Predict the structure of 3-deoxy-D-manno-octulosonic acid transferase.
Amino acid sequence: MTRRLSWTARPAAIVLLRSYLRLAIGTTRWTFDIHPDAEPLLTGQGDHSVLVAFWHETLALTPALLRRSLTRNPAMRPHVLISRNRDGRLIADIIAPWGAGTIAGSTDRKGKDKGGAAALRQLLALIRSGEPVVITPDGPRGPRRQVEQGTIGLARLSGAPIVPVGGWCAHWRLGGWDRMMLPLPFGRGRIVCGAPITVTRADQDTARATLATALDAAMHAAAPAPARAAQRLWARLATLLAPALTLLLHRRLARGKEIRGRQRERMGLTTQPRPPGKLVWLHAASVGETLSILPVIADLLAQDASLHVLVTTATVTAATLLKQRLADIEGGTRVIHQFIPLDVPRWIGRFLRRWRPNAAALTESELWPNLIESCHRHGIPLALLNARLSDRARAGWGRVPGLAARMLGRFAWIAARSDRDAARFRTLGAERIDTPGDLKNAAGPLPVDPAALAHVRTLLAHRPVWLAAATHEGEEEDIAKAARQIRTRYPTLLTVIVPRHPERGPAIAEGLDKAPRRAAGQEPGPDDAFWICDTLGELGLFYQAVPIVFIGNSLPGPGRRGGHNPLEPARFGATLATGPETENFLDAFTRLGNAVQIVPDADALAKWVETMLADPARRAGAGQQAAAATHADSTLPNRLATRLLALMDAR
């Protein structure tokens, strides 16, 4: 840190450096990204003491983490291992105001006693008493970013886990062996704490490499993301397009895709007040994503009775569904809904300043560069739930690799729904990613109103019937073609169509000889060939009432996007078919195996429905096979809710 200081100059240097660090650390806007398993260790609430490991170059940044830990637990007494030389003593005097003690000692080398043995005894005593210890594994002399064996030996002897820490802030680099960062005032900084590492006798030979890799990963995660120019260009383009996006909102309002009086929410404007206390924000684009996060919302509310949850959606149907389902969730009155602002920096900024969430989570493939960048700038820790990335989306982001890496690097963690999705995210630069499971696999059966079910079953009794569920624009033509073929053999056949977007119901009914619509209170008569069930939130009703189900958004054609979740009808024991476009749910379809029939066109669909109608035993067997494959990990929503609460506390 310094060459030599005379004893007369030393007090002045301590005062100056201490004052400067107080200014720089205190005026830096810090973001903390802390692994959930590390959080209790760093605040003295775990079952063990902890070794907190920094590379030596970030030593001047340690007060930021010390201050945060001591704020959460003032009774803690962390200690920092320093060298016995003058520089070490100078460091001890400088960091004293941050409540940390020091232990002097280095690894003994070439027969020289540097206090290593005595320091080891003191460290072991501190760890056994439950106090955290801060160490620099590359020591006071280097080599730079190479873990010395002493750190690994201390971890093995004490049994204390090591939390690898990386840091970055606006800084100068000093010219020593470690190129130490000296923070600049009034900048931004980031501290990243990785998953704890436990060293045992069995893995002590590889532990040095493991710790070095973890420290480098934390440093990389803390550093500013790449592609700043690409991000700025994206932001400027969105700003230039803002007037056109305003006109688009008016068009969507005229088409019923926005709610009158609430379209200004899409520009970050609202009259709703922010509730006091802690607020976590979850974003789900449409119906499927909203359904998947409902159990997480329920667990968040159950785990923290003072918490409010802000949920944003991009579609009116998702907003309506959310309102329906919140009535069945305890604490649902603490959930606030807003429409997500479009990805314009000024609009997103308004939204974040209004709501000031303590943490945020996006769902599946909702990747909006300006939104993600704005969360980072406002110091809002961000996660990605049930992360999904198709090959097509990966290829698209692959055309702007720097922007993709920057965007994904802003997430504190990414919970991928499958190993396949995790691998795709990693090719784009995602690092803090794991695969806890698929929320859609963990969901329970869709809700069903018993009275409505009894009525529909009575209505459909004594005639052959099949269901085309979650259909998209253009598919109804193929479904109608298949239905007309089937009616040559089954003249009383009824085809029930549940469009994915209920607002399309009138147009579908008009194209099918003015078929009756459930949303209009109409029911099919004996001569009606089609029934358009364009209500919201009743898909479970029809999955249970109709045993033969075709899953839409899967037949080849423009605008098709890779199928829908087959586990929803499978949970009711339905016999299933789908078109070949299933890339959005490959793992679910793989899990169901041959319990799902792939039909490439209308002719194959008609043949399959006829087969199921003609062979009830085969139909029942296929349904039982599908239902048997839908076992769910019911603990997943709770685990993700716990991680989100930890993320909020790590801010």
